[in-house]
Amino acid sequence: MQLATLAAGFVEALGRLSATSDDYVPSIVTLLIDQARSARASDIHLVPTETALVVQWRIDGVLHPIAGFDRDLAPRVVARLKVISGLLTYRTDVPQEGRVSREFSRTEVRITTFPTLHGEKAAIRLFAENDQLQKLTQLGLPEEIETELRRHLAATAGVILLTGPSGSGKTTTAYACLRDIIADSVGTRCIMSLEDPVEVAVDGATQSQVRPTAGFDLATGLRSLMRQDPDVIFVGEIRDPATAEAAFQAALTGHLVLTTFHAGNAAEAITRLLEMQIEPYLIRSGLRTVICQRLLRRICTNCRDQVGHNAANPSKSSESGRTSDKFALQPVHRIACAVCGSTGYHGRLVLAEMLNPNSPEVAKAILNRSDAPEVSRRAAASGMQTLNQRAAAAVTSGQTTHEEVLRVLGSIV
Ligand SMILES: [Zn+2]
């Protein structure tokens, strides 16, 4: 079904609800979540404007405007979301976050609210049922990266750094790693986490959520956690030098530390650690591997096949005259496609690069405190397939488009 049709269906279903019923607002919220889920949305945004509450769905990483509620309804809808996720309905002046109770949703749904000029904005994160079950093999990482990562996960010490910007899927990868460690260790390793917040509950791991206001932050929490005799520690995200320092200390004292880190590429993660005052020798001896990843939308094979969009169809390409059309496969917006809602894309593709800090070339660059381009150049020279190289290959093999690479990586491949 086309996205426009889905949106129209949603608006129509809203119109069928009885505004006088006691259940009116709860029904709106149920409909809101159910319809977004059936459209494969990962997030719903409710954005208050001067005149309306605008509904947007994020599908395969891209936000689409869907509908608008009457301005008067906005606070009631947001209040209902707060009720089902245990938030304080009377506090509209502070950001809040919570998860929808199992009574209202079988699968994981997280809600965050944020005060804005025109009232509270709400963001609803919908976790797919299988988000909570995914294993490493299901992520679609390049095979050699998956194999190498598995080897690191079996190690008894060192830091494994999963990097990328937000929305790159690094957290999903981290949880998949945790599940694999748990499955492989069959209860023989003590696995603990420190997170801010705990995003997904994982059976077999002892997870804790920090409370910085109570003095329980990642850095101090990590030091206390050492005394709990863990073998594997998952740190939700390293954001500051103190946490980075504590994570490396843990790694050097015989713990495997799995963590995520915000960085545009693997080499940049190294230079950011240096900027956080982690000494080069600590990085050299403590860091096992750095993976950086991105999620790109896949070309919808249904509408690509319908119009026979391929290299043998140059007439359509020349119509627009854009240079990027020289690439074989482009998203097709011209025809109605039930599979992708006529966006031209369906599903996602993981691009990843894996940097080995112990290769002699890279090790030298780290010890010399080289900048990110230099670290990247040396890593590539010692065999790392970069994100750009993998993106180029994905375009050539018809899995994604040049535009999509440009949107996500911001560079021309
Ligand atoms: Zn399609």
CATH class of the largest domain: Alpha Beta
User: What is the spatial order of strands in the main beta sheet?
Assistant: 9-8-10-11-7-12-13
Q: Termini, distance in Å? A: 32 Å
Largest sheet: 7 strands, mixed
Here the CATH topology of the largest domain equals: Rossmann fold
What would you note in describing this structure?
The chain is of the alpha/beta class and 413 residues long. It folds into two domains: 3-129, Beta-Lactamase, CATH 3.30.450; 133-297 and 344-409, Rossmann fold (3-Layer(aba) Sandwich). It contains 15 helices and 13 strands. The chain has helices at residues 3-16, 24-38, 74-84, 143-153, 170-185, 218-226, 241-252, 266-275, 280-286, 301-306, 314-320, 360-367, 372-381, 387-396, 402-409; strands spanning 41-48, 52-59, 62-70, 96-99, 109-116, 119-126, 158-163, 191-195, 206-209, 232-238, 256-261, 287-299, 345-355. The chain has a seven-stranded mixed β-sheet, sandwiched between helices. It has a six-stranded antiparallel β-sheet with strand order 3-2-1-6-5-4, covered by helices on one side. Helix 1 (3-16) packs antiparallel against helix 2 and helix 7 crosses helix 9 (280-286). The radius of gyration is 23 Å and the shape is globular. The two termini are 32 Å apart. Zinc ion is lined by residues 300, 302-303, 337, 339-340, 346. Residues 300, 302-303, 337, 339-340, 346 line the site of zinc ion.
